[in-house]
């Protein structure tokens, strides 16, 4: 069995390629390979990258996969390094009744008002937008620009999942997200998350929840390009604790 696995961001740079092919043989019982089998074989093939590979997770068909899950050659597989923490298809131009896509990846400048309009609703008395922009200095180091890369089909699916989580936790909540990809200059917006709810307190909580989930599980990576070089930035726990694990349950849920 041969498995084709896509690579992204710093992992693709480290291995010097955008994808790898891994061949595995079924065991004596004929059992198919598991996610862990693939991870073990990748680590054996690329020992120089073991420290980075130890923090990566496999995605299967646009969803993070647990180590025990079986994989087949027909699965779409990707090895996901820690996300940066931080395309939806446009509706058919001929379908005037189509609702604008609420979860979008774009390489064009983001209009926050356009994202906010997607969640405006007569039953919602509160609307809040988070706008993430490129700052010029981080810990005393000057940033020239940021560059974002995404596993695009999975990223849209994950945005939709986050939106569904919000709707389940805060009845009546509406969410829209637009994340920009490619180079983004100082002061330009990279991410807009708009949330509306019937009541004010829920709106604050829901928007903060969406931000933290994006940082935790969205397969988008950020390269900081400065005056002295560039560096891919990975996930940092908001509690300053354990490492990145996209399979961890959402906050407040067992």
UniProtKB/TrEMBL annotation:
Residues 231-254 are annotated as: Disordered. It catalyses: 2 [molybdopterin-synthase sulfur-carrier protein]-C-terminal-Gly-aminoethanethioate + cyclic pyranopterin phosphate + H2O = molybdopterin + 2 [molybdopterin-synthase sulfur-carrier protein]-C-terminal Gly-Gly + 2 H(+). Pathway: Cofactor biosynthesis; molybdopterin biosynthesis. Keywords: Molybdenum cofactor biosynthesis, Transferase. Its EC number is 2.8.1.12. It comes from the Bacteria. InterPro entries: Beta-grasp_dom_sf (IPR012675), MoaE_sf (IPR036563), Mopterin_biosynth_MoaE (IPR003448), Mopterin_synth/thiamin_S_b (IPR016155), ThiS/MoaD-like (IPR003749). GO terms for biological process: Mo-molybdopterin cofactor biosynthetic process. Transmembrane segments: none annotated. GO terms for molecular function: molybdopterin synthase activity. Heterotetramer of 2 MoaD subunits and 2 MoaE subunits. Also stable as homodimer. The enzyme changes between these two forms during catalysis. PANTHER family: MOLYBDOPTERIN SYNTHASE RELATED. Belongs to the MoaE family. This is Molybdopterin synthase catalytic subunit.
